[in-house]
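Notebook entry, structure prediction.
Reason for the run: the old model in the group folder had no record of what sequence produced it. Starting over properly, with the input documented here first.
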Amino acid sequence: MASILKRLTGRGAAVESPADGPGEIELRAAGARVVIVPELGGRITALELDGRQWLATGAPPNGAPEEARGAATGWEECFPTVSAARLVSKHSGLSIEVPALGEARTLRPLTSIATLDGALEATCEWTGERMQYQLTRTTRVAAGEVTMRYAVKNAGAAPMPFLWAANVAMPLGSGTRVALPDNARARVLAQHGIDMLGVGAEHRWPRFRTAKKIVDMGAPDAVAGRYAVHVSFDLPVGYVTVTEGSARLELRLDPTVISRIGLAVRRKAGEARLLTLQPAIGIPDAVAHAAGVEASAAWLEPGETRRWSMTWRGGTGTDEGRPE
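New structure, fully documented this time:
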């Protein structure tokens, strides 16, 4: 393992920790395990808490669009946009094409591993090619929890707009339940096989009105037989939970910084059934669109750095993980 870490980070290993395959970095603590693959753009292929692997794995279906291909495989960082975008510089007039799910996922980050206060940490740093930025994610694995700390710096000479989302894809089963704050406002970004009153329509969690009936999005597998939908929520408080039977995954964050969360459901014949959570800064869509929607896109001045973080915990029970 020491040789693998040295090859990945360009330095000697700070921690020796076994991994499941070449090029993987495994971080493990009591009740928590994360596997990161720098060669795949820093993708996280395992997020285990309390013995449960929460991420979806496996290849996307043939012919799937780029958004679906990314969404089908674990955890990816979407930056500096989520949907494909074309940006035109006001200063130079040059256009920049940014692919679906952003470019960070296509770049191999510099990676380092360390121990700090008894926990394991892996830091991935992406340097932009189409836009001038430095994006950093530090994954900290401690007993029973996983914390992600992020920072992005504008390394260019002009203000830079961006969107960020962590694309966290999980299997969707008949017992999958999602808990968001009651009455959280949602906007439909895309719909297929179901009419949720059109793209741009607004709803309140958890009951969404369709053209035919009212459905409970807290039980997404039961909403319709075959459908796909992508919605974005304003997040008034800093928690979201997903339960599968007695297993519970809890996300805690600061809603004044990560103010939105995307929710994508894919339940189509012949395809893996997926539930994708997207903790997000800005509406998880195209940065060119979001820049004109309620000032959704974030902006960085030249040399400015922005930081944010979130924590995942596992558990059991049916209390939906809501704060006491």
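Summary: Residues 1-21, 60-71, 288-295, 319-324 have pLDDT under 50 and may be disordered.
The old model has been moved to the deprecated folder.
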